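Dear all,

This email documents one entry for the complex benchmark we are building for the journal club exercise. For each entry we list the sequence lines for every component of the assembly. Then comes the predicted three-dimensional structure of the complex as a token string, followed by one or two observations. Please use this as the template for your own entries, and keep the labels exactly as they appear.
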Amino acid sequence: MNIIKKIFFVFVLFTSGLEARDYIIVQSTTSTANTGLLDLLSEKFLEETGIEVRAVAVGTGTAIANAQKGDGDILMVHAKQDELKFIEEGYGVERFDLMYNDFVIVGPKNDPANIKDENEITDVMKKLSSPSFKFISRDDNSGTHKKELSLWKMINIKTPQHASYIKTGSGMANTINIAAEMQGYVLTDRGTWIAFTNKNDLTILFEGDSALFNPYGIIAVNPNKFPHVEYEKSQQFINWLLNGKGNELIKAYAIDGQQLFFTYN
Amino acid sequence: MIELSKILEAISISLHVSFVSTLFGFFLSIFFGYLIGTREFHFKKYIISILGSLTSIPPVCAGLVVYLIISRSGPLGWMQLLYTPSAMIIAQFIIIFPIMTTLIINYIEQEYPQLREELLSYGASQKDILMLMITNQKSIYLTIALIGFGRAISEYGAAAIVGGSIDHVTRNMTAMIALETAKGNIMVGVSLGAILISLSLVISFGINYFKKND
């Protein structure tokens, strides 16, 4: 009897993966998932087309690495340089500008570093590089982390090298949680910030600099590189996001009356 | 803040995945436990030590190993297992199998030599002794199954890596707790944790009741 059961479960285990795929896997960032946008888009796309969208929410770096192993049909991230490299190396077909928002610098309301009145991002970063103020870094190779590194580069340092520069190695919202506890400054995309519910006494202290632009790109994984990818369905999803109902949904997506992501049309 | 249907879905994913991984762990650990425990062979000591050390494998590492194997670029990539409940079952199995096997070997080593001598003197066959060992002490197997199940349903790292925490598909209770905490909904995270523990409590009560009536 036991043997029969065992064989049965081995059978169930191994057949579950072999059926034809009626879903696509999107390797995406925590910012699009933690805000709830991807859940909404998947739900509506399924209703309209019968194609299920399965979103894996990891940092941009991890998402790209996973897609390079062939573990995804679509890459939806925010690090343009890396996205273009992804295509150059033959992993992706074409990069489309999907949507954008911007990064903001968030910190405790009393603003010990007094960055509120600064006009230039470089002045803000100079102040925040001081050991007197805590800066909380993602340090996880995500799009936001890459952006942060580029901001430090603007003032010609790699990263601050002292104990007040804290590396969390975790997702965006987790990192804001830590910043709230430690009363530190943190760079975040505006979408995650608006959707985040544990703000405590943190608030936006610097925004609006052109260096803080945050564009999201979308790329179908190259079927010539990985024959198993669902290219047709992926392209259908991409078109739906760029020109179809998906575009409307992105524009209309708001939390507490605030729009999180903006599209180009 | 979070819909009941989503929580129920996460509970059913958790139960399904952990139940199947425990079932596999249960039968295979009994099989290998007896294979190793009732025999004397050259490398026995080493195998038991290795199994013992694997009881402390970090779930994240188990997840990574499974990920490398079932990724599209891995040897079993063609099976399309990554980001499915089956992948989570495999990862959880790898975590609980050494634990359950170690416990069973432990039990056998305590009971078997004496029992064997006694029963052989009564003229019992080797097969009779094994059957008696298995049927006699059901409660031990139930306890071992419960320990395996508890470990499987409570772990996050492995299931998150190979499952991908995909909504409706692989987002189990622990993945949902992590996600809600990450969004800043800390109280929701704590409540979900309480639900998970209540669930384990019910199962634990059920098994203890079953043991008493055995």
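Observations: The first strand of chain A starts at residue 23 and ends at 28. Chain A has two domains: 9-100+216-259, 101-212.
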